[in-house]
Specification:
CATH class: Mainly Alpha
Structural class: mainly alpha
Helix content: over 70%
Shape: globular
Distance between the termini: 44 Å
Radius of gyration: 19 Å
CATH topology: ABC transporter involved in vitamin B12 uptake, BtuC
Largest sheet: 2 strands, antiparallel
CATH architecture: Orthogonal Bundle
Order of helices and strands: HHHHEEHHHHHHH
Length: 301
């Protein structure tokens, strides 16, 4: 039996899981579903491309990193782009969502996030066109890993990047003061404010983290596939499926949910047909809502 779909699914699931962390944190702390979150993935990928080009203009020729298709410029640009995408998320909240939270309802925020998503996507298409682009056009050969599984060096590097980012996120949430504050605000925002937690700071950090991790997911997609203005929109339903499957508010749950959705999609391509791939995330979402609405790691209020 060919198990290649497992490797493909883990790679896709890693991207979905990183993006789903921002979705689950935003929902648990701000109490609304942000449908503009997928656009942070696309903006992060294009920001990395732009910063890579700027570094290349200033520093000259790139230095390759071993067997990978990218060099040190992409790594440096990725760190800068994660910060820029996080700041974009903070700015969007300050300009739009923060004002609506004061006087609007949850449905108002959701509709506003739809509008913000379309505006962000249109800006990308205006600035970069709708044609796909790539971090590198270098050809890589897949390495046999056994059991019929093959992976390129880039793919293995992206899986390692996911492991590092998820570990760092877990440490932030469990070992730092801001992580404990985020968990407190998620449980009970009014009570957290009464005991002295700066809820505004927690909200800003939540947007920074969500935007930064979405950017990392966009970099992964850009390096292993391609960069397109609609790449975030295409991942939006899998992001929400992963967040709900894992349990709203659970970072490990979002990552595990992403891996499950990714493997399910890759399995559908191999055993059923590529035309059913997009429906898998929707079916998983419906099944979870019917069987266990709180998700794998979620708890009832």
């Amino acid at each position: 039996m060919n198990l290649q779909f497992l490797a493909d699914g883990l790679l896709i699931g890693s991207m979905i899981g990183l993006g789903a962390i921002g979705v689950t944190l935003t929902y648990s702390i701000l109490r609304f579903a942000n449908f503009a979150h997928g656009e942070f993935i696309a903006w992060g990928a294009y920001a990395t491309l732009a910063v890579t080009g700027a570094i290349g203009f200033l520093a000259g020729r790139d230095l390759p990193l071993g067997p990978f298709s990218f060099g040190w410029r992409v790594l440096l640009a990725g760190v800068i782009a994660m910060a820029l995408t996080g700041l974009l998320a903070v700015a969007l909240d300050a300009l739009l969502f923060k004002r609506l939270r004061r006087h609007g309802t949850a449905i108002t925020l959701v509709i506003a996030s739809f509008g913000a998503a379309m505006a962000l996507r249109s800006l990308l298409e205006f600035a970069f066109s709708s044609q796909p682009t790539y971090f590198s056009r270098a050809i890589q050969f897949a390495i046999p890993l056994g059991f019929g599984i093959r992976a390129t060096p880039d793919q293995m590097a992206m899986l390692a990047l996911t492991a590092v980012l998820v570990t760092l996120m877990h440490l932030v949430m469990t070992r730092t003061g801001i992580g404990r504050a985020m968990r407190a605000v998620s449980e009970n925002p009014p009570l957290a404010e009464i005991v002295g937690i700066d809820v505004g700071r927690v909200v800003r950090v939540t947007w920074l983290i969500g935007g930064g991790l979405a950017c990392a997911a966009g970099i992964m997609a850009g390096i292993t596939v391609q960069v397109r203005p609609h790449m975030g929109f295409d991942l939006l339903l899998p992001l929400f499926s992963a967040a709900i499957l894992g349990g709203i508010g659970s970072v490990p749950g979002a990552v595990l949910g992403g891996l499950i959705v990714g493997v399910a999609q890759a399995g559908a391509v191999q055993f059923i047909g590529a035309e059913f791939r997009a429906a898998i995330a929707f079916l998983i979402l419906i099944a979870v809502l019917l069987v266990r609405p709180t998700g794998l790691f979620g708890t009832r209020d």
